Amino acid sequence: MEDRKKLIEEQDKKIREKMSKVKHKIAVISGKGGVGKSTVTVNLAMAFALKGYSVGILDADIHGPSIPKMLGLKGRRLQVSKNNEIIPVFGPMNIRVVSMDFLLQSDEEPVIWRGPLKMSALRQLLVEVEWGELDYLLIDLPPGTGDEPLSVAQLLPDMDGVIIVTIPSEVSENVVKKSVKFAELLKMRVLGIIENMSYLTCPKCGERIEVFNSGAGRKIAEAFGIPMLGEIPLDPKISKEADSGMPFVVDFGSTTSKAFDEIVNKIEKTLNG
Ligand SMILES: Nc1ncnc2c1ncn2[C@@H]1O[C@H](COP(=O)(O)OP(=O)(O)OP(=O)(O)O)[C@@H](O)[C@H]1O
Ligand SMILES: [Mg+2]
User: Fold this and answer.
1) Each residue of 179-195: pLDDT tens digit?
2) In order of start, what are the domains of the chain with their CATH numbers?
3) How many CB atoms lie within 10 A of CB 174?
4) What is the Å distance from ligand 2's center to 66 Cα?
5) Structure confidence at residue 250 (pLDDT)
6) Fewest C-beta atoms under 10 Å: which of 159, 165, 209, 248?
7) Are 21 and 133 in contact (CB under 8 A)?
8) Cα of 35 from ligand 1 centre, angstroms
9) Among 28, 38, 39, residue to substitute to test ligand 1 (most atoms within 8 Å of Cβ)
10) Confidence at residue 220, expressed as pLDDT on a 0 to 100 scale
């Protein structure tokens, strides 16, 4: 027992050392799955990278790692350096990616690790990975606000805060409350809410079409005193690009691309004063 405690302490120390080279660490969370958390993560990463920042993504979604596919990195593997450190996989715009997906043999192989084993695998990864100097590390946490995302987030020291991704129909006080509570438990600041699939843009005239109860996110953000970071439209191109492995943000000038840019500018201002 004593040995185990010592090992954990040593690992925590190493993780802290590694993470001290990362200027900003932001976790992306959502009240529930399928709201576009991973999509938002890769597009924010890309938008930061296009501004000249060095960016990393930790895909900490153990059961459904989807970042590699979205960045066209399926089938790639983590490499070990001469100093026996794990090197992240380099994606578009040199975005450094670490994902459990890079450790799996094949897509068909299910991740059947039980809780403790899963956490120690992730912990070990964090100890061994050499990210290098990074401006921003975005962490795609497992969906929801339960035990698993909480344990994963607790592995990471000195986080700048969390971003809550939500969709209009799901923007209920309850979901936001749960996410805020999650951040409180972790003693993390809520950097803001992103409402994904917020509205449609007419492909012919560019007019904004409110499909769901748009604007609800903004109201709730105000009620909770949380910054509203932005609204991302429901854009068929987003999922097409995700399948092709190139984040949508590169579609310069589109409403969706601008929405991500504005969010990144806000985060930048919040964190750098
Ligand atoms: N703004 C959007 N417009 C159109 N499609 C979108 C948008 N955001 C996400 N999607 C699509 O919705 C699906 C779910 O997105 P994504 O995988 O990012 O969600 P998630 O919250 O990470 O899900 P999970 O809980 O499984 O991790 C994907 O097919 C994605 O391409
Ligand atoms: Mg996901």
Assistant:
1) 999 999 999 999 999 99
2) 2-272 (3.40.50.300)
3) 10
4) 6
5) 65
6) 209
7) yes
8) 6
9) 39
10) 83
Q: Is 39 in the pocket of ligand 1 (CB under 6 A)?
A: yes
Distance CA 98, CA 73 (A): 11
Q: Is pLDDT at 109 greater than 80 in this prediction?
A: no
- On the question of pLDDT at 14 being above 80, the answer is yes
Percent helix / strand / coil, the chain, rounded to 5: 45, 20, 35
Query: What pTM, to 2 d.p., does this model score?
Result: 0.93
User: In this predicted model, what pLDDT tens digit does every residue of 204-221 receive, in sequence order?
Assistant: 887 888 877 767 788 889
β strands within the chain, DSSP E = 22-30, 55-59, 79-80, 86-87, 89-90, 96-99, 134-140, 161-166, 190-195, 200-201, 208-209, 228-231
User: Is the Cβ atom of 239 under 6 angstroms away from ligand 1?
Assistant: yes
35: CA distance to ligand 2 center in Å? 8
Return the ligand 1 atom nearest residue 233 CA.
1
| Beta carbons within 10 angstroms of residue 264's beta carbon | 24
